[in-house]
Amino acid sequence: MSEPPTPVQRVSAIPFPQSYALPRPSGEAPPPVQDSYRQGQFLLGDDLRLFEEGMNLQLRIVRDASSSAFRKHPYAALMGLWSRTFLTLADACQLATQGSYVSCPPLVRAACEQIAAQHQLHASEMELFLEWLAGNLVPNVEHKAFEFGLGHYFAGETLAADARLRRVYRPASALGRPNFGATLLAVGPESNNRRLALNFAENSFHLGWAELTLGWLLALCERQLAVAVHAKGVFPIHEDTHNAYADLARRVEQSLSRPDRCYIEEVDEGKYKRLLVHNFRRSSSGAPKKLLL
Length: 293
Description:
Blueprint: H1 31-43, H2 45-64, H3 73-97, H4 104-134, E1 138-140, E2 145-147, H5 156-161, H6 163-176, H7 180-187, H8 207-229, H9 239-256, E3 263-269, E4 272-280, E5 289-292
Antiparallel strand pairs: 1-2, 3-4, 4-5
Helix pairs in contact: 2-8, 2-9, 3-4, 3-8, 4-6, 4-8, 8-9
């Protein structure tokens, strides 16, 4: 088996934020957005603080790996995808805390794919990145352009094999597409067999959607940390960092396992797999419902 080509580019120092703080709406935000933020803080404050802790633990690992000794091409491959993941999770959290739940599933799906790509590259396919890098970042004579090259990559094997990623990826994908039931769940969750109760561009608080989305974000924050912590030879993981990750992973599992929180599971119905939504309700005082998509 031939060795992959060695790219010639050096990896420059990568700037990164020093810390992550939970988003807050501006004082000029509409009342429904302000209310969604306040109710989220009150009812889901533990989830939000745990997410903030996980995001800052990510930055801690990035900071520990910022020395030039670690800036090799596999480091660049993982850091590029990790940067996209971090911003995607941060943006989804901002939207979720301001009641824009309908915008979150596509971001969640993208984060799943980016995390899976990091794992699969490091585990078995880094030569694909090295081959792409060695053959690009050069002038393209025909188009008189600078050749980046798209570098098609999709880590479907990891998305199928990782149980936690799969539990997030499949429902987020289904809810992020223009499926009829997904649309009704997003913009008409109070609809029933008597009426369609639709809204337009609403940002009102919905406990079920908030719990579901923040549960996804917690799961993905933990999965991103797992990839980084186990990327041996790429990132320096000190014992205290590993212990901090293990403790955070335990608390994420506790939060996601709460029997009263809203979550989605795949169920078999004949030859098909369907999505069963548990504990779906607009407010904490409402009766939890099951919905089958």
